[in-house]
């Protein structure tokens, strides 16, 4: 799906500084106005030069201001409470609605950010790999385990373990016939980056799932699948991002399962029969 410019700015926001940060905040705080602005009008509004605006646009991945301007019209998101900032004054009903809205908006924004062709490529790599490793530290290890658990229902040979040392050991045993799915919300976790470097040194194809496509982990990956979610005050571990990443995993599982067809069905049937025996 084509990506909204607003969603892309949000995914880069924590990595911007100086003039870039100023431009980003101006755009997010004036969403209706900026959709109709020329580059000169935006420069005047932010008290910056057109060259600075142009560099910002290219830094977040657009070839020209025209391309960026068109992307702003794709969808008009809400204000900076997009993922439902929770306040102490909120009653129980408001909190519940904000949590559910945050999850819903995270999925919608991720659908705007993520590239269908990249998802298809990732699925092809996984389906043809000798072995697939699912890597993540801390909260991201939950997504990695979920991926491993799902892909057990396919012919894919997988690996997952929450311990960092064991992840490193597995990474150095993988080869260029293998694929690694590396999950990190921030894309800045030092342990995850170290695992990524071991994988690369052994020629392993790496797919990163992260909310920050300009992070170090994303820059080092062969393919990036970007989720879109913002952290809010109470939910500091970004539960919305977790939901978005789980959905990316589910999409990959479905694509691979369909691609492998009858082989997947045979594995599912055998697993179902084995589990059913435990319930007698």
From TrEMBL:
A matching Pfam family: SIS
Keyword hit for Transcription: yes
GO BP of this protein: carbohydrate derivative metabolic process
UniProt entry keywords in alphabetical sequence: DNA-binding, Transcription, Transcription regulation
Residues in SIS domain copies: 122-262
Domain HTH rpiR-type intervals: 3-79
Signal peptide (UniProt feature, chain positions): none
GO molecular function: carbohydrate derivative binding; DNA binding; DNA-binding transcription factor activity
Protein name: Transcriptional regulator
Organism, scientific name: Weissella kandleri
């Amino acid at each position: 799906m084509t990506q909204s410019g607003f969603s892309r700015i949000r995914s880069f926001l924590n990595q911007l500084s100086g003039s870039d940060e100023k431009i980003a905040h101006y755009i997010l705080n004036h969403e209706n106005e900026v959709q109709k602005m020329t580059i000169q009008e935006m420069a005047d509004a932010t008290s910056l030069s057109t060259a600075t605006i142009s560099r910002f646009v290219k830094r977040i991945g657009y070839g020209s201001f025209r391309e960026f301007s068109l992307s702003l019209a794709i969808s008009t998101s809400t204000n900076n409470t997009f993922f439902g900032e929770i306040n102490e004054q909120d009653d129980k009903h408001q909190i519940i609605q904000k949590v559910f809205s945050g999850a819903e908006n995270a999925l919608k924004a991720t659908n705007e950010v993520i590239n269908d062709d990249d998802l298809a490529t990732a699925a092809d790599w996984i389906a043809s790999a000798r072995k697939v490793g699912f890597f993540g530290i801390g909260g991201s290890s939950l997504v990695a385990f979920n991926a491993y658990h799902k892909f057990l229902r396919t012919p894919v040979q997988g690996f997952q373990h929450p311990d960092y040392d064991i992840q490193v050991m597995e990474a150095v045993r993988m080869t260029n016939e293998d694929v690694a799915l590396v999950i990190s919300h921030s894309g800045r976790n030092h342990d995850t980056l170290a695992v990524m470097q071991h994988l690369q040194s052994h020629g392993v194809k790496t797919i990163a799932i992260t909310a920050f496509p300009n992070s170090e982990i994303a820059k080092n990956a062969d393919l990036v699948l970007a989720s879109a979610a913002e952290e809010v005050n109470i939910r500091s571990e970004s539960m919305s991002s977790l939901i978005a990443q789980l959905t990316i995993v589910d999409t990959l599982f479905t694509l691979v399962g369909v691609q492998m067809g009858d082989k997947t069905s045979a594995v599912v049937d055998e697993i179902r029969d084995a589990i059913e025996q435990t319930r007698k």
